[in-house]
Amino acid sequence: MRLYYSDASPYARCVRVAIRHLAIKGVKEQAINPLLNDEAFVSANPLAKIPCLILNDGAALFDSEVILRFLDSEFGEHLLFGLAPTWHQQTQFSLLKGLLDSAVGLRQEQMREEEGVRSPFWTARFEQALLRGLQHIEHHGEQRTQVLTAHNIMLACLLSYIDFRHGDIAWQHVAPSVAIWYRSFSGHPEMRDTQP
């Protein structure tokens, strides 16, 4: 199998952490700049987004959640998501995906500043969504453990990306217990090995 990824992508990092955690052999990781529209990559994923996993039969899977669920089903014995996740657990995972979308959207707004088209409205909206979402996780999220589940992996990759791209956002003030958990969780070898 081949995984198209970029070091800076938090979505791809979630998949790379899962591959290491599940000790999946035979996955060739290929770093790529999705903005360059590499022909083989775009042929596999017409959206030109990463991550994208090419299976041994040539079929392509894209969207980090789809890939994570595939890896969990085929190689993980449902260790990442569980056999029968509750609606609450699935909603919490959707919250984490939405927060990742907000963090990446905020980064895109920052990049537009060079073009003079950065939107103060969308910048503030993305920042507020991040803080509200993390505060919600602080008070209403699932119990955080050191076990590498899909939820914990995505939360840790989200927080790492915020620190990496948005160091001015003091998320630790609204989610202090999450910050304590994150410092410990970041010590997992799978997290260290995929650090951008």
Features:
196 residues, alpha+beta, four-stranded mixed β-sheet, globular
The first-to-last residue Cα distance is 22 Å
Going across the biggest sheet, name each strand in turn: 2-1-3-4
Task: Please count the beta strands (DSSP E, at least 2 residues each).
Answer: 4
Give the overall form: globular
The SSE string, one letter per element, is EHEHEEHHHHHH
Unreliable sequence segments: none
Strand content: 5-15%
The radius of gyration is 17 Å
Average residue pLDDT? 95
- Estimate the helix proportion, in percent: 55-70%
Brief account:
With 196 residues, the chain is α+β, with helices and mostly antiparallel strands. The chain is built from eight helices and four strands.
Description of the molecule:
The chain has a four-stranded mixed β-sheet with strand order 2-1-3-4, covered by helices on one side. A hairpin with a 5-residue loop joins β3 (52-54) and β4 (60-62). The two termini are 22 Å apart. The protein has 196 residues and is of the alpha+beta class. The longest helix is centred in the middle third of the chain and has 26 residues, at 87-112. Helix content is 55%, strand content 7%.
